[in-house]
Amino acid sequence: MTNRQLFLNHIGQTSDSPLCLEIVKAEGCKMWDVNGKEYIDLIGGISVCNVGHRHPKVIEAIKEQLDKYLHVMVNGELVLSPQTEYAKLLTDNLPASLNSVFFTASGTEATEGAMKLAKRFTGKTQIVAFKNSYHGSTQGSLSIMGDEYWRNAFRPLLPDVLHLNFNSFEDLELITEQTACVVAETIQAEAGVIVPQNNWLKSLRKKCDETGTLLVLDEIQCGFGRNGTLWAFEQFDIVPDILLLGKALGGGMPLGAFIADKNLMDCLTNSPVLGHINTFGGHPVCCAAGLAAMKILLEEKLIDSVKEKEQLFIALLSHPKIKIRSKGLMIAIEFENAEENRKIINALLNVSDNYKLSDNSPAIFTDWFLFAPQCLRIVPPLIISHEEIKQAGKKIMELVNSI
Ligand code: PMP
Description:
Blueprint: H1 3-10, E1 23-27, E2 30-33, E3 38-41, H2 44-47, H3 56-66, H4 81-92, E4 100-104, H5 107-122, E5 126-130, H6 139-144, H7 148-151, E6 161-164, E7 179-185, H8 200-211, E8 214-218, E9 242-245, E10 256-260, H9 262-265, H10 284-299, H11 306-317, E11 323-326, E12 331-334, H12 338-348, E13 363-365, E14 367-369, E15 372-378, H13 386-402
Parallel strand pairs: 3-13, 5-6, 5-7, 7-8, 8-9
Antiparallel strand pairs: 1-2, 2-3, 4-10, 9-10, 11-12, 12-15, 14-15
Residues 46, 106-108, 111, 134-136, 185, 189, 218, 220-221, 246, 256 line the site of 4'-deoxy-4'-aminopyridoxal-5'-phosphate.
């Protein structure tokens, strides 16, 4: 059986039309498939590979950790230096109130942990989230996902969840003394890059303060420089009570975290003890990789070029047939409808029979957004070069011109 057949027969599938690209190598902002075909990667594992695929310093850190220990016991009892060093670097680069890091193995587990912490700390039950928001696929995160189509088949879900309109000042009035926490993406990603209006996040912060509600900001997709600052919330002059991280946090390895003030976090240590536990969260190899990736992000000043690269994409992609929404290197190109977008995505992959290996211009790997299937996703590694942006932009424009 070929690998493709094994994939189709023995790997749990998520759709009835998988791309089935057999990737054998990835480096920097490029990937290669089993036929030697080259791709410019415009999605970087969905906002994971901010420092690029296989950055040599990340590989070195992983190898160094492999020579010491892999899994011992990560949950709470043992002092493991990849965790402590990473927690120090993270909290040194966060506001003083975000000083305690609870590592998880994925983004959705960070969401779950934060919701539990908010309920435990406030003694309240209601959770407020926003329409078109995505916080993960497990049942708690699914309960606060902002789209009924994706939730409905899995009911019953968590009770006492209220969905408000993102950017609506009026809806903020529905946050009350009964609300344990509000969970929001700082920049809504799967909605097709929706940026908070002027002062809306500040009003949300104020309403949370007035009602004794914890503000949880999900920066799992938009954190780590993607939007032009290390954390997206810095651009809105607010600080969350709990910050959710994932994706780029692990430098290409699976890692998530919820981060809060120690006083808040310590609730999980009593009544009941072990209020939140997991076997693999904060795995030493993942922390070593994430720590190396964050050091690269800061030392190589990768965030400094994000806005300029965003502007280059925008300049190359301006066309009357499309709308662009962006915040740093999180860009949505909106087409008339999902079918048009799907055609462009497939054409960029060169999956048609016309593709020839002698054509040495690389294909472009991109994607759509969960709640905005008419939008093409551009969330490349932040190290993407001007040349790669130009190559990708040129191909996208050729196709836009042909529709
Ligand atoms: N929150 C946001 C904003 C995300 O984009 C994602 C992943 N797409 C998650 C949470 C869930 O992360 P994970 O897939 O690691 O569980």
